[in-house]
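Hi,

I'm pasting everything inline rather than attaching a file, because the server keeps stripping attachments. The sequence lines come first, and each chain or strand is labelled.
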Amino acid sequence: MRVSFPYMGTTVVYKKLLELLGHEVIMPPKPSQHTINLGVKYSPEFACFPMKVITGSYLQAAELGAEVIITSGGHGPCRAGFYEQVHRRILKEEGFDIDFIVFNSMFRDSKQFFKNIMKLKGNSSWLKVGQSLFMVYDMIRKLDKLEKRVQKIRAYEIKKGEATRVWDIIQNQFDRANCKGSIQKAFYDGSQQLDQIKTYNVNEKEKMRIGIVGEIYVVMEASINMKMEELLGNLGAEVERSQYLSQWVAYNALPAFINQTHEVEILKKGEPYIPINIGGHAKQTVGHIVDYSQRGFDGVIHLMPFGCLPELVSQSIIPKISQSLNIPVLTLSIDEQSGTANSLTRVEAFIDLIKGKRIKKIS
Amino acid sequence: MKDFYIGIDVGSVSTNIVLIDEKCDVHYSAYIRTNGQPLDSVKKGLKDLQSTLQQQANIKGVGTTGSGRQLIGTMVGADVIKNEITAHATATVHVVPDVKTIFEIGGQDSKIIIVDNQMVIDFAMNTVCAAGTGSFLDHQAERLGIPIEEFGAMALKADRDVRIAGRCTVFAESDMIAKQQFGFSKSEIIKGLCEALVRNYINNLGRGKKLEPPFVFQGGVAANLGIKTAFEKEIGHEVIIPKHFNIMGAIGTAILAKEYIGESNTKTRFRGFETTDLSFQPSAFECGGCSNNCEVIKVEMDSKVVAMWGDRCGKWTNSL
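And the predicted assembly:
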C-alpha cells in the first residue's frame, strides 16, 4: 500500500513503522504556506485550524500518489472525531479516492482496532509486527529524550540556530537507522553532537523555564505555531511541551488498570478545574499548567486553534488557575489569519513579565 | 553638557518622539501622523528635535517601540528595541508608581495591563479586530462630520442614553443610522458610541481579570473626554490620565534605554542626527527557497544591506 499520514512533529517515527511493515510511505511535505492555502480553500470556513492544515497535507500527499491515509480518531465531544469523514469527502470531491484507516484507543472498539492492525500488517509475520512496534517505540523514546535536550540547549546556544540544525541532522540519522544497533548509534551520535554545541554558562537560578500547553496539533507542529519553541528558545527560555509522542503512545496503548503514565497523573491534577472529559486536550491543558507550577516553571504558553471548543473552555478557566497558583499564562490563538508581528509582541512582553517578576521590576 | 535619551514610538497612526533627561523629565515631544511612512515621519521628527536642541546636548541612549520598532531601531541605531506593552507599563509606573490597571487605546490596538507592585503581572491585547480602537472613533467622527478633536467633548452634552451595537465598526454604523432616525441627537449618538467602545474593550480585554484602582488611561484616545467619562461610568471609579498620555510608549522606551545604558555601562549605538540625511531603503522580496515563500524585508543604508528579517528559517537574517 502507498500510505500517508498527517504531518505532526517528529514524523520519522510514523514513516519508520510503516516502512518496517513493508509499505511504501508517501511522506507529506512539511506544512508550509502553500499547504495552509490549500487547506483553507477546500475546508469548511468554520472548521478548526488543524483540520484545515491537515486537509492541505492530505491533498499534497494525494497528489504524490497516496492511496491510504492513516490517522488517529478523536475521543470525546471534539470535532477531531469527525475529521476523517469530512476529509474523506473533501478528497473525494477533488477526485481522490483515498481509503482511511482510523486508529482509536483499542479499549473502545477492539474489533475495529484489530481490523486496522490486520490491514497494516499485510504480509508481515506477527513476530515482525511485534518487533517493529517495539523498535519504533524505542526510537520515539530516544528521539523525545534528545528533543528535550535540544529544547534546553537552545536557550543558551552561542550561535543562534545551531541546536535546531543539529536536531534536523539527528532526525535524519534516525530516519536512516533500521535496526536496534543503528538506532542506538544514532542516539549516541546525537547526544555527542548536542554536547558539542557551545553554550553560555547560565546560573541555575537565572534559568527561565516555560511550558507549552494546548491542543496537540498546534503544540506539536512547529511549522504552524510560529515555531514557538524556537522563538522562546531564542529569547532565552528553556521549553517543555505538554505533548510528546512517546507519552501519547504509552498513555493510549496501556489498559487503564496498569496505566501509570505521567499523563494519568496530569489528568488528575487538572480535575479540580475540569472534572469531566470535554474532548480534545482541555483536561491535559489545565493539568499541565498545575504540573508546571508545581515543578517551579516560570510561565506557560497556551496555544489553541482559533475557535477550538475544548480549549475555549480551558482558556476561560486559566485566569483562575493562574491566579491561585501564581503562574503567568499567555493564551495565543492560532489560525491562518493570525499575524506573527502581533503574537511576537505578546511573547516578548510575556518574557519581560517573567523576568520582571524575578527582579521585582519591569525590565 | 547635558545628557539626554531619545524614545521613539512608531505606531500605525502616529509616530512619537520624546527627549528625556537623567531624571526622566520630558524636554521635547512630538506627535506626528505616520501616514503609512514610518521612515519619513521619524526623519522629520528627528530633524525637528535636532533644531530645537542646544549645542551641548549629548545623546546617551535611544530606544524604539511600536509596530515599526525593528525597522526604525535599525535606522537610528537604537540601544533598546522593546515591545509596546513593556514600554507603556514602564512609563506609567514611572508617572503613577502605585498604578494597578492601565488602559491603553491607540490607533489600531488596545491593551490592558495589570500591574502589581510596579511589575506587569498580566496583559491582554486586542486580537482579531480593531473595533474599539482609535480608528473606530476616527471613522465614526468622519461619518458624523465632526472633527475628532471635538468628538469627546460633545458626548458630555448628551441628555439621554442610547445603546449602540459596538462589536463591529460596520454594524455600529448601521445601528447609528437607525438610532438617528429615532430622533437621538448627534451628541447622544456620540455618547452611545463612546460607551459601546468602552463596553467592548472591557468585555474583550478585561475578561477574567480583576480590575483594581488606581486606573490609568493613556494612548491617543485618552484625549477623548467622552471615553474617559464612559470608562468612569463603566468601572465606577476615577480614571487618571497622565500629562503625556499620548506619548507614553516613547517615554517608556526612552526610560528603558536609560536603564540599559546605566546597567550595561556601554556607549550608545545611536547613529547621530546625520542619519536623517542618509538614504534608507527598505524593500521586500519573496524568498522562493522553499514552499513557504516568506516575504523577506531588506533594509539598505546607502546601498549597503544593514538588516534583513521576515524569513522563517533564518537563512537571510543570519546572512549578515
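The longest strand of chain B covers residues 2-10.

If the labels don't parse on your end, tell me and I'll reformat.
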